[in-house]
Design goal:
Layout (H helix, E strand, L loop, with lengths): L2 E5 L5 E5 L4 H10 L3 E2 L2 E4 L5 H12 L3 E4 L5 E4 L7 E2 L1 H4 L9 H8 L1 E5 L12 H9 L3 E5 L2 E5 L8 E3 L5 H12 L4 E5 L5 H12 L3 E3 L5 E5 L4 E2 L2 E3 L4 H13 L3 E5 L7 H9 L3 E4 L3 E5 L9 E2 L11 H9 L4 E5 L8 H8 L3 E5 L2 E5 L8 E3 L3 H13 L3 E5 L2 H4 L5 H7 L3 E5 L3 H5 L1 H4 L2
Parallel strand pairs: 2-17, 3-15, 4-16, 7-8, 11-12, 20-21, 24-25
Antiparallel strand pairs: 1-25, 1-26, 4-6, 5-6, 8-10, 9-10, 12-14, 13-14, 17-19, 18-19, 21-23, 22-23
The structure holds uridine-diphosphate-2(N-acetylglucosaminyl) butyric acid.
């Protein structure tokens, strides 16, 4: 397993080009199942989760390829197996995004239930109840959701008990080819949901209200292939801005709509950072140590849970204390123990972490436990004195494209170590 080694304490400065968003690209790829003709995708990031989704589509019989300009082409006209096997779903929960589209197109689907997850239980009940409300018959058999419909899915009014991002996306895709009108209430308003709605409209869908809590979809008979673009990864962008701030440098991120970062930028500005924005760029710097500020994660436009761990790293060396409340996932504090190993002063109390800022963190061997937790450890390592080794970095490869390269270009001392066969045979590593 690869590790990342960082020599901390260097201010990072410069400009980073933001990649396409993983969480937008995944539903867009799943939407290809609905298209009567090839889809062409721009700005698909090169990430492990994206490869998993492409493998999933190819497994179903789709023709998936990438051209020399990095555009991805997906033609699902040859797809014949409406399934998502456990082997793929267990490595990426977002595989469940194919359920709605498969059911809408084939009238039946068999998709593995994802099982446990490092950050919380993350059930799929609202996806399934929504599809049932649209006329699907659903049962769980040997770990798989087996769904079928007699004829087409039927439009329905669905009120989500909790805001769910992929639940909204799954049902929006299913509804695009259903009979009649579907209303999704208490729907997710994330920019990735809007990117999906825009792409479905380009394919011929009739969708209104995306970006608000109530989305109305009138089913159409067919959807065509289209050429669509993935939006910028707002979580990646904010992570690089945080890298500049935590090291006392100045980072600019480009090719990103600053409006998507409002909640994050408001909090760092409150902490004392200077924030400049242009049409498609953002720059952050701080002339003094940041002040502790409180955050509470919530669905968009609130503070994103996917930035909670990175913000906590910033607060570890802020002056004063901050309370970080996590309201979306019940177990998204796995980074706390690791940050403490670097000297951070954090007390956990239920869904809140109280961080008492210290002057400096000290480098240490730490372990990545999930994608965003890994990003917070990278940030902490960049700011810490001495060397930090982060193991299990496969988590970070799920969501950050070329992270070492991008950070090195900003002046970081960071390298990836891939164990040689000799190292793997050494007793200390073989038992880990
Ligand atoms: N939930 C239910 N039942 C459901 C669906 C969700 O109880 O049927 C609960 C979840 O357990 C959670 C809350 O609702 O407590 C919100 O979860 P949501 O469904 O919105 O999460 P998701 O769609 O599975 C997406 C992102 C996550 C991101 C969350 C929240 C993708 C592929 N994943 O997950 O991204 O944290 O929304 O914004 O879009 C990441 O990129 O690191 C990541 C985990």
């Amino acid at each position: 397993m690869d590790s990342i080694i960082i020599q901390g304490g260097r201010p990072l400065s410069g400009t980073v080009e933001v990649s396409g968003a993983k969480n937008a690209a995944l539903p867009l790829l799943a939407a290809g199942i609905l298209a009567d003709g090839p889809m062409i995708y721009h700005r698909i990031p090169h990430l492990r989760d994206i490869t998993t989704m492409m493998t999933l589509l190819a497994n179903q019989g789709a023709d998936v390829s990438m051209d020399d300009k990095g555009r991805v082409r997906v033609d699902t006209s040859t797809s014949h197996l409406p399934e998502a096997p456990y082997e793929l779903v267990k490595t990426m929960r977002a595989s469940a995004l194919v359920l709605g589209p498969l059911l809408a197109r084939f009238g039946h689907a068999r998709v593995s239930l994802p099982g446990g997850c490092a950050i919380g239980a993350r059930p799929m009940d609202m996806h399934l109840k929504g599809l049932e409300a649209m006329g699907a018959e659903i049962r769980v058999e040997q770990g798989y959701v087996v769904a079928k419909t007699k004829g087409k899915l039927q439009g329905a009014r669905i009120v989500f008990g909790t805001v769910t991002v992929t639940g909204t996306e799954n049902l929006m895709m299913a509804a695009a080819l259903a009979d009649g009108e579907t209303i999704l209430e208490n729907a997710a308003r994330e920019p990735e949901v809007v990117n999906l709605a825009d792409s479905l409209r380009q394919m011929g869908a009739d969708i209104k209200g995306d970006g608000s809590g109530c989305i109305c979809i009138r089913g159409v008979d067919r959807l065509n292939g289209a050429e669509v673009s993935v939006i910028a990864d707002r979580i990646e962008a904010a992570t690089y801005l945080a890298a500049g701030l935590i090291t006392g440098g100045e980072v600019t991120v480009k090719h990103v709509d600053p409006g998507m970062l409002d909640a994050f930028l408001a909090r760092v500005a409150e902490a004392g950072a200077s924030v400049e924005t242009g049409e498609s760029w953002v720059r952050c710097s701080a002339s003094e140590r940041l002040q502790g500020v409180n955050i509470r994660t919530s669905p968009h436009p609130g503070f994103p849970t996917d930035l909670q761990a990175q913000f906590m790293a910033l607060m570890c060396i802020a002056s004063g204390s901050s309370v970080i409340s996590e309201t979306i996932f019940e177990n998204r504090f796995m980074h706390v123990q690791e940050l403490r190993r670097m000297g951070a002063n954090i007390v956990l109390n239920g869904n809140a972490a109280v961080v008492d800022g210290i002057e400096t963190l000290s480098g240490a061997p730490v372990m990545a436990t999930d994608l965003r937790a890994s990003a917070s450890l990278v940030l902490a390592g960049l700011a810490a004195t001495g060397e930090t080794t982060i193991s299990r970095v496969y988590h970070i490869d799920r969501g950050y494209e070329r992270i070492e390269e991008k950070l090195r270009a900003l002046g970081a001392s960071i390298e990836r170590i891939t164990p040689t066969p000799e190292l793997l045979r050494s007793p200390s590593l073989a038992t880990s």
